[in-house]
Write a structure and sequence with these properties.
Order of helices and strands: HHHHH
Shape: elongated
Number of strands: 0
Structural class: mainly alpha
Largest sheet: none
Strand content: under 5%
């Protein structure tokens, strides 16, 4: 896939997948109205805004890295090579981690227990999808390259130093 096509595909997928998971569903839960369940809730709201901003960075970066590799995060248009650059050098699932951080940020910003529960459910569903579908698929597709990556880079909690793949 050409880089331009991959970039357009990634942009479309970005609007559909993360747009729904971290935008539409939290909006349906909160209406994006702030509730202040406790005094001094402004501190939690500031932390929430910071989490949203921080969480968006690896999400956008992951989409860019997939486009550079000639594909999209969508399984139907995935890159032909294993993407192990940028945030993927620290954590295997930077897009999912980033989306979860964005959702938790919204739970804090809007004071929404429902959004916090949604974040927990989203993580459980995503972790199951990764474990039972994505990882076996990547193992079949990329073999020893993926196995070395999986052994060196944690799935959910970033390592402190970036991983560098060995010679191929």
């Amino acid at each position: 896939m050409r880089t331009t096509t991959a970039a357009l595909g990634s942009a479309a997928f970005f609007l559909v997948a993360p747009g729904t998971v971290a935008g539409l569903i939290p909006w349906l839960i909160t209406g994006w109205h702030c509730h202040q369940p406790l005094p001094h809730w402004v501190i939690a709201q500031i932390v929430g805004v910071l989490l949203i901003c921080v969480g968006l960075v690896p999400v956008v970066s992951a989409f860019a890295e997939f486009a550079k590799a000639g594909g999209t995060p969508a399984p139907v248009a995935a890159p032909r090579r294993l993407v192990v650059s940028a945030f993927n050098r620290y954590v295997r699932n930077p897009m999912y981690v980033g989306l979860l951080v964005v959702i938790v940020g919204q739970a804090l910003l809007f004071g929404s227990l429902g959004t916090a529960i949604y974040a927990a459910v989203m993580w459980a569903v995503t972790a199951s999808f990764v474990r039972w579908y994505e990882e076996p698929t990547l193992q079949r597709q990329f073999g020893t390259d993926y196995e070395a990556y999986r052994q060196a880079v944690p799935a959910w909690f970033p390592r402190l130093r970036p991983w560098t793949p060995g010679p191929r």
